[in-house]
Amino acid sequence: MTLITEVEGRRVTLSNLDKVLYPATGTTKGEVLHYYATAADALLRHLHNRPVSFLRYPDGPDGQLFFTKNPPLGTPAWVNTAPVPRSEDAGARQVMIQDLPSLVWAANLVVEFHTHQWQAGMPGLADRMVFDLDPGAPATVVECCAVAAWLRERLGDDGLHAYAKTSGSKGLHVLVPLEPTPSSRVTAYAKSLAVEAEAVLPRLVVHRMTRSLRPGKVFVDYSQNAAAKTTAAPYTLRAKAVPAVSAPVTWGEVEGCRDPGDLVFLADDIAPRLERHGDLFGPLADPDRAGPLP
């Protein structure tokens, strides 16, 4: 079934609303669209003015997954795009999700939203820094929380504010608002903290990607600060067995995590969390919280 609806004056075509995308929970495409509409205010705050890449999973997480950087075929003319420098394509552009109509249009494609750490018009000049904490089994998000707490304190020593969110998968993301800084410098600083974390917590942390080093430890991935890299956006759904969300969390929740299930948040959990906490990542968009790298 195809439905043509109007969203804030834009005609948006929605399709296959009854299609089950997450068999484990019976979550349909229509429910995915409803989630994105209800989380729109918070999500759009973090997509604003950032070129977006999509991980598409139109047949659910068990179907084909493919990453899309270029505007998808059939992108409406009213959906904004921005130039994105790529060595292989000087004229490359990516979609900008700036409002509810473009969000609903993109959500109909069944996507994860991924963004750079810089804004359109300032490629390679990062206003956010990210640490992707990835546990190697048997380590879990519980171990990631211990590393995140160390990073928060260490970043605080340098006058920087840290905020945490679940990855929506196994791990945790720690983000830091910055005064605009070249991505290469942010990457170097993030790497120095990853190396320091391994020196201070050698039984818990590894800073190299080598698979053989990672069992039972948390890989502190600093590489997503590179100008070409992207990270799952706050509040995006992930292509996992259940409709898990990359959800901002309080530091109290991080410090109190004792079981991996403590930090699993599904689509239905987000509206109550937004009502209770507001947008925990709101300070990331506040220039007064942005700090300079030391």
Automatic annotation (TrEMBL):
<dbReference type="GO" id="GO:0016874">
    <property type="term" value="F:ligase activity"/>
</dbReference>
<dbReference type="InterPro" id="IPR052171">
    <property type="entry name" value="NHEJ_LigD"/>
</dbReference>
<feature type="domain" description="DNA ligase D polymerase">
    <location>
        <begin position="28"/>
        <end position="281"/>
    </location>
</feature>
<dbReference type="InterPro" id="IPR014145">
    <property type="entry name" value="LigD_pol_dom"/>
</dbReference>
<protein>
    <submittedName>
        <fullName>Non-homologous end-joining DNA ligase</fullName>
    </submittedName>
</protein>
<dbReference type="InterPro" id="IPR033649">
    <property type="entry name" value="MtLigD_Pol-like"/>
</dbReference>
<dbReference type="Pfam" id="PF21686">
    <property type="entry name" value="LigD_Prim-Pol"/>
</dbReference>
<keyword id="KW-0436">Ligase</keyword>
